[in-house]
Design goal:
19 helices; alpha+beta; Beta-Lactamase; Alpha-Beta Plaits; 4 domains; 626 residues; five-stranded antiparallel β-sheet
């Protein structure tokens, strides 16, 4: 703007050239482009140049511009800018993505934005007019296409990375299905993902996991029998074993109504893939895009890649479960095998200890099975074992375990049952088995019965092996009582050994009374720690006393062995040898526990107990101490 009035002749000449001169009012730039000029003598002149004249040599399809007020209103728009809806004259840019660019410019930071194939560059106008900004618009279709492809590639790479991690971390089909659907829905930003596994016995699809489907969808898609008349895309794809791609859900009568009702978010495109490895159908997965996802159609190849990897992962999970089942289930009867029973019992014993709850154990033997095998043949014997196993499996609770112990013997583990309820469960199972009948090839009916032994943890045994042994002894009692009956273990848990008071009198008069009193306090803590290490059961009270004597001497011995040790009783002299060796090794007070455990496991010849290499070497050099 001029600091002095513009000469009339110059103003007339500029107006004649089609230029608008701004002298006092900057509120409106008319129809032109604002341009500020400054002369060498410091005078400034602001003109409004005609858009057409300014960019007359450019194609309007390649360049354009707009002037925007600080209120967000577009006051002028020319050329390519008119093709940008947000820059149409009269529009408010703060209601569009261009608003972020405008905010940056009004704060004094020139900015740019790539939007739908055009590049927008924003800058402020003359410093004394902070109320307007200029946006230059240039064609950037190639740049936008490259950016879009790069974004899609990044999206695909991120999705495959996250999904691959989920596939590698899960070995079972159910956990794999849940992890995969959640990872796919999150990584690909989908409205819904549904994964079915194929049930060959029922020739049906079972919905294993889903994300984005409501309760109505779960009811509709939960079980899909495969037949001649598919009711949705999933069973159609499973039947034809070919993928289906729809640009919009309403493009197919099988999805037009269903997906719109079962998805929490408005659905867009739909892709459904069969999950096949070789000639085996493993399942079907359906990807439902969001209605506002314009890139869904461009990521169809991503869903094909995901489906291929998912099919291989499901196949591996199926093989893993089959192998695991063979390892933990009896191949003849289909129920848990001996190994699985031992693991289950050990876990339930630990749980029983933690919850202070009882645990029932049944040992079962099919009566006269050897004779039956000899008379009817081994095939008939196998059938009887299957009948008994099926009866046990169907009669117990879902959290109980029926297992084949070996031969014609079975075991049932019953958590949370005391003796009375365990006996009731045993009699109920015995009655169910007694109703079984086997009809041989000659049409003769053979009655099937079984004998039961009942035991409870911890009343009849404080370890898994002891309670099983108690149930086994009760089983033999039932067989001696005539078979087809229940006998209960009568063996009570043996009373654990108790620590007796420790005698320090042999040391009285040899060491100061104060030192002996302090040693007695340390000694009680040490003996309790030995009991916690289960050494009382291993070596008894005599062994604990021997260790305590060595511990006492380690606490009381100075650097040089005193002469009074020559007057010690024999049992204290033996302990002295070990004490000397341990003091020479310089262990800390906590190491005495490791020493104690090592010494007694070494004496017992145990290979499974605690054996510290350092103390083993000491024992090897001090055989009289051991």
């Amino acid at each position: 703007m001029l600091d002095a009035p513009l000469p009339h002749e110059l103003k007339t000449a500029l107006l004649g050239a089609g230029l608008l001169v701004h002298e006092n009012d900057w509120s409106d730039y008319g129809q032109g482009f604002p341009l500020e000029l400054e002369s060498p003598d410091g005078l400034s002149l602001s003109l409004s140049l005609d858009w057409a004249a300014l960019f007359s040599r450019f194609d309007e399809g390649q360049i354009g511009g707009a002037v925007i007020k600080d209120t967000g209103e577009v006051t002028q728009s020319w050329g390519l800018a008119r093709r940008v809806p947000a820059l149409a004259k009269g529009q408010n840019i703060f209601e569009s993505p261009v608003g972020l660019l405008a905010e940056s410019v009004f704060r004094g930071f020139p900015s740019h934005l790539l939007l739908n194939g055009v590049r927008l560059l924003g800058a402020g106008l003359p410093a004394h007019d902070p109320t307007h900004l200029l946006v230059l618009v240039v064609e950037a279709a190639e740049e936008y296409d490259a950016w879009r492809k790069a974004s899609l590639s990044e999206r695909k790479a991120d999705a495959l990375k996250r999904i691959g991690k989920a596939l590698n971390m899960n070995q079972t089909q159910q956990s794999l299905a849940v992890a995969a659907t959640h990872s796919i829905a999150s990584a690909a930003e989908l409205a819904a993902v549904m994964l079915w596994t194929y049930n060959e016995e029922q020739n049906a699809l079972e919905l294993a996991a889903n994300v984005g489907a409501n309760r109505q969808g779960l009811q509709f898609f939960g079980h899909l029998p495969l037949g001649e008349h598919p009711k949705c895309l999933a069973d159609l794809v499973a039947t034809e074993r070919k993928p289906i791609v729809l640009a919009q859900a309403e493009d197919s009568p099988l999805t037009a109504e269903i997906e719109a009702k079962i998805c929490y978010l408005p659905p867009g495109g739909v892709v459904v893939h069969p999950l096949i490895v070789g000639d085996n159908l493993l399942g079907v997965i359906e990807y439902v895009g969001r209605a506002d996802d314009t890139a869904f159609a461009e990521t169809v190849d991503l869903y094909q890649t995901i489906s291929e990897h998912l099919a291989l992962a499901l196949h591996s999970a199926h093989l893993f479960e089959a192998t695991e089942r063979l390892a933990r289930h009896d191949p003849l009867t289909g129920i848990a095998n001996h190994r699985a029973m031992q693991d289950f019992l050990a876990a339930k014993v630990t749980e029983s200890n933690r919850n202070k709850s009882p645990l029932g154990v049944l040992m079962i033997d099919v009566d006269h099975f050897r004779k039956f095998n000899e008379e009817e043949g081994h095939d008939a014997g196998d059938e009887v074992l299957r009948l008994v196993a099926r009866t046990l499996r169907d009669q117990v609770r879902t959290y109980d375990l029926a297992a084949r112990y070996g031969g014609e013997e079975f075991t049932v583990i019953l958590p949370d049952l005391d003796q009375r309820r365990t006996e009731e469960a045993a009699d109920r199972l015995r009655d169910a088995i007694s109703k079984l009948q086997y009809v041989n090839a000659a049409g003769q009916t053979r009655q099937i019965t079984a004998s039961f032994g009942v035991a409870n943890y911890p009343a009849n045994g404080n370890t898994p092996s002891l309670v099983l042994k108690a149930a086994d002894l009760a089983l033999y009692e039932a067989k001696r009582n005539g078979r087809n009956c229940v006998a209960t273990a009568t063996q009570a848990l043996p009373k654990p050994p108790e620590l007796r008071p420790f005698d320090l009198s042999p040391l009285k008069g040899l060491v100061p009374a104060e030192a002996l009193a302090e040693c007695a306090l340390e000694l009680e803590t040490y003996r309790r720690d030995l009991v916690a290490l289960k050494l009382l059961e291993v070596c008894g009270t005599d062994g604990i006393d021997a260790l305590a004597r060595a511990f006492t001497l380690m606490l009381l011995l100075p650097e040089k062995t005193p002469e009074w040790t020559l007057d010690l009783p024999h049992d204290w002299s033996v302990a002295l040898n070990l004490a000397r060796a341990l003091v020479h090794a310089g262990p800390s007070s906590r190491d005495y526990l490791r020493a104690g455990a090592t010494v007694w496991n070494y004496r017992q010849g145990s290979e499974s107990g605690f054996l510290d290499p350092e103390f083993l070497s000491i024992l090897a050099s001090q055989p009289e101490a051991a």
